[in-house]
Write a structure and sequence with these properties.
The complex is a heterodimer of chains A (168) and B (349). By secondary structure, chain A is mostly helical. Helix content of chain A is 49%, strand content 8%. Chain A is built from seven helices and two strands, in the order E-E-H-H-H-H-H-H-H. A two-stranded antiparallel ribbon of chain A has the order 1-2. The longest helix of chain A is centred in the last third of the chain and has 25 residues. Chain A starts with 11 loop residues before the first strand and ends with a helix. By secondary structure, chain B is of the alpha+beta class. Chain B is built from twelve helices and ten strands. In chain B, the strands form two sheets. Chain B has an eight-stranded antiparallel beta sheet with strand order 2-3-4-5-1-8-10-9, covered by helices on one side. A two-stranded antiparallel sheet of chain B has the order 6-7. In chain B, a hairpin with a 4-residue loop joins strand 3 and strand 4. The longest helix of chain B is centred in the C-terminal third of the chain and has 29 residues. Classes of the chains: A mainly alpha (168), B alpha+beta (349). Chains A and B meet through helix 5 and helix 6 of A and helix 4, strand 6 and strand 7 of B.
Chain lengths: 168, 349
């Protein structure tokens, strides 16, 4: 088996199921080390996914991209797997989206919302929750409920637009 | 109260609680960060100090803020930091941090707020026995109180933004601390750990790793923090924990019905060693106390109370022994003190 990033023999092999799809990662010793993997210690698949989730062609390039808010460089973030500030989520969105999906099998928050967040955030979150219920209803062919949920979502969206209008 | 005051008491989460045989305690941890503020691991000292001050001020909004004690890590000796760690009030990571890092602990030790750990705020709520709902209610209330004056980093898509993407969303880590000697002795623990791991939960030894966990103490927690409401994460975990408890109870029943003499021998030998040994390492003490705890659960040691053994599980750790002795002790001196402490406890029985 060859390394995903070069023609050398891969020494690190990892498999992870992401949304029902198998994803395999194979790395040679050199690239494993470049990814910050100590080949003698247990590895976290998330670290690997995080490192490989960007377009592989740009793997060695663009490492200089840095968060405009806190200055954390992509290279640093890939090494530690930790972000520098809340804004890093925007800066590194491309690689984070996949890593987050792999970890949580979801990309949409459905939990608590801080009281300080505005009506708009609450409404968006309500729509996301209804959307999830709608998908579940369709999956179990409960079309009666699905229709009700669809109407609720429509109503929420209309109200949301109205609110926007009032604000502006 | 000073840190030394802890030595004379035990945390409120060691009281009796639901399913108290196999379950020690339930914990809710919430990760929160301040808006437009660099995460602690990447922040300057100035920023970390500012975060500490902001959290300090935010405590004014907590109804019983006076019942909280607070310590900054740079004011504490290594031994004091270790003591807080052994009492499950701070993480190893916080103990190793300095400027701006600290902890707020309420007097019964059921609530703790770590500041400038991996995230600006790590809020924890502990309850005795299996009671995740109560732990959640307490954590939620404290979170709401702090939020009155703190602006959290939040996105409608990704929820609460955290330094590590593995905590993003709810920032919630719910966990249950379990004592599973039945499953270990019947050698059924590995399949149980494998099964639980496969459904997205993490199983760790409380001390030590995996099925080799010292004291047969395990912690089961959720891994996924995004895409589910808190209530669902908590109830999923609770369902699985209830199943594990069922397996543990069945294992104990099988032990007592099919291998009664072996169980008596296991508990009796542990008692014998604990009552007579002059040197005792932490690992050995944890394993032997585990046997004693099982003996209490099975009614083999009528004069002993489970809660007292649970307190010993904490008091035999190095920082507790040294604080109690009022001196820094070498490993061998600790082994002597540990053996003495346990012998004295058993003499009173």
């Amino acid at each position: 088996m060859k390394c995903d990033l070069c023609d050398k023999e891969a020494v690190v092999h990892l498999t992870q199921v992401v949304n029902g799809e198998m994803k395999e990662v194979h790395l040679c010793e050199e690239h494993a080390v470049a990814q910050g993997i100590d080949i003698n210690s247990p590895i976290s698949i998330t670290d690997i996914l995080m490192g490989l989730s960007g377009p592989q062609k740009s793997f060695a390039t663009e490492l200089s991209l840095a968060c405009p808010c806190c200055g954390m460089a992509r290279e640093e973030f890939r090494k530690t797997g930790r972000l520098g500030c809340p804004d890093c989520y925007k800066t590194f969105m491309a690689e984070l989206t996949m890593a987050i999906k792999a970890m949580h099998h979801s990309g949409q928050h459905l939990g608590k919302i801080p009281a300080r967040e505005g009506v708009q955030t609450r409404m968006k979150s309500k729509v996301a929750r209804l959307q999830k219920d709608l998908e579940a209803a369709i999956a179990r062919e409960d079309f009666e409920n699905a229709a009700k949920l669809r109407d609720q979502i429509k109503k929420c969206r209309e109200e949301s637009v109205k609110d926007e209008g009032v604000k502006s | 109260m000073t840190l030394d005051g802890f030595l004379k008491r035990h945390g409120g989460w060691l009281e009796a609680g639901p399913e108290e045989g196999p379950v020690i305690s339930s914990r809710i941890r919430l990760a929160r960060n301040l808006r437009e503020t660099t995460f602690p691991g990447w922040a300057s000292k100035e920023v970390r100090n500012r975060v500490w001050s902001e959290v300090l001020l935010a405590f004014d909004g907590v109804a019983d803020s006076k019942s909280f004690l607070r310590w900054r890590m740079d004011e504490l000796s290594a031994l004091d930091r270790e003591l807080l760690f052994e009492r499950h009030l701070i993480s190893r990571e916080l103990a190793e941090r300095q400027t701006g890092s600290g902890v707020f602990v309420n007097e019964d030790e059921c609530r703790a707020v770590m500041v400038n750990e991996e995230d600006h705020i790590r809020l924890q709520s502990l309850q005795p026995g299996l009671n995740l709902q109560k732990a959640w209610d307490v954590a939620d209330e404290l979170d709401n109180a702090l939020e009155k004056s703190l602006s959290y980093a939040f996105s409608s898509k990704l929820g609460y933004l955290t330094a590590c993407p593995s905590n993003v969303g709810t920032g919630l880590r719910a966990s249950v601390m379990l004592h599973l000697p039945g499953l270990v002795l019947t050698e059924e623990i590995k399949p149980v750990i494998n099964a639980v791991s496969k459904i997205g939960l993490a199983v760790r030894g409380l001390w030590g790793e995996g099925s080799e966990a010292s004291g047969h103490m395990f912690q089961i927690s959720n891994q996924i923090t995004l895409g589910k409401p808190e209530a669902e994460i908590i109830s999923n975990l609770e369902q699985i924990v209830l199943e594990v408890i069922e397996h543990e109870k069945n294992a104990r029943l099988r032990l007592i019905s099919k291998q009664e003499i072996r169980v008596h021998d296991h508990v009796g030998r542990a008692y014998g060693i604990l009552a007579n040994a002059a040197l005792m390492t932490t690992g050995e003490a944890l394993d032997l106390l585990s046997a004693l705890r099982l003996g209490v659960d099975l009614g083999l040691l009528p004069n002993m109370v489970r809660r007292e053994i649970d307190q010993l599980f904490i008091r035999i750790h190095p920082a507790h022994l040294q604080k109690e002795a009022g001196a820094v002790l070498s490993p061998e001196e600790r082994d002597i003190k540990r053996a003495q402490l346990i012998r004295k406890f058993l003499e009173g029985k």
